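SECTION: protein entry
WANTED: fold as tokens:
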Amino acid sequence: MSAQSNNTAFMLSDAGVALKQTLLDMVTDSLYITKPGYTPNSDQYPDNIIPFVDKHLEYLRTHPATDPQHYISNLRLMTRVR
């Protein structure tokens, strides 16, 4: 099984669904700055704006060696309003 299919399986697992929910919760929480970002992918995002959740799920999908829990922990630290 390739790393890509392992990562896709993770995103569909209970842990992957919980990870997506955590990102969605961050977007609705005023304690975090969760602005959308730029993407060169005009096919999927015609306005070249990628939502916060999609951006970070895409990063985790394309970097299968990244520990999702550590990534979320660091993301919370970096985006927290001070």
